[in-house]
Amino acid sequence: MAGAKDVVDRTAGALGWAGSVSPELDWAAVEGWVGTALPADYKEFMSRFPSGVFRDVVRILNPVQDRRWSAAFRSDADSMLIGVRSLWEEEGGYPPFPEPGGLIPFAGDVAGGSLCWLPWTADPDEWHVVHLSRSSYRTRTRRSMTAVMRELATSRSERNVLGWDLADTERTFEPF
């Protein structure tokens, strides 16, 4: 199985992205206000990608990039958690973090949906990814964050966590 750095490098290559990030903040501070440790592959991913948009479909904010993006990440995560809570209270499914087994958002789609970790185990490196659309459609994967992002970077059909046909979507990463 490929390591996180290899998956991140292949994702960047698929998108034509050669850049990297020099973080201004440290992960201990981010994990402190999130309230839990975060997956190592996510940290590796964020060492390569700044805040930006993947293929014009997924918006990801880098919480260690600098104070501005950290604040934006926090604000987005708080908003997404409100949506997760609403969906949970209305329809059941997954609760929001910090409820036990609660979803932890890390990115959003351009239609208002959320990509979240499902902390089904105490080890964050084993967490799966769940996509929640605005219309309450849920997709649970058994893959890591980097595997899901690689899938989105290379998808040529609807076979991806979003279920969107990406065949005609340009393979790019655009930093903000």
Q: Could you explain the architecture of this structure?
A:
The protein has 176 residues and is an alpha+beta fold. It has one domain (4-17, 37-175). It is built from five helices and seven strands. Strands 6-5-4-3-2-1-7 form a seven-stranded antiparallel sheet, sandwiched between helices. It is globular, with a radius of gyration of 15 Å. The termini are far apart.
Which consecutive residue ranges, at least 5 long each, have pLDDT under 50? Answer: none
The quaternary organization reads as single chain
Number of strands: 7
Please give the radius of gyration in angstroms: 15 Å
Can you count the helices?
A: 5
Distance from first to last alpha carbon:
32 Å
Largest sheet properties: 7 strands, antiparallel
Q: From the helix content, strand content and strand pairing, which structural class follows?
A: alpha+beta
Shape: globular
Report the mean per-residue pLDDT as an integer: 93
Q: Give the strand order, joined by hyphens, for the main sheet.
A: 6-5-4-3-2-1-7
Strand/helix succession: HHHEEHEEEEHE
Helix content class: 25-40%
Q: Please indicate the percent range of residues in DSSP E strands (runs of 2 or more).
A: 15-25%
Domain tally: 1
Q: Short summary of the structure?
A:
Helix content is 36%, strand content 16%. It has five helices and seven strands.
Write out key terms for the chains shown.
176 residues, alpha+beta, 16% strand
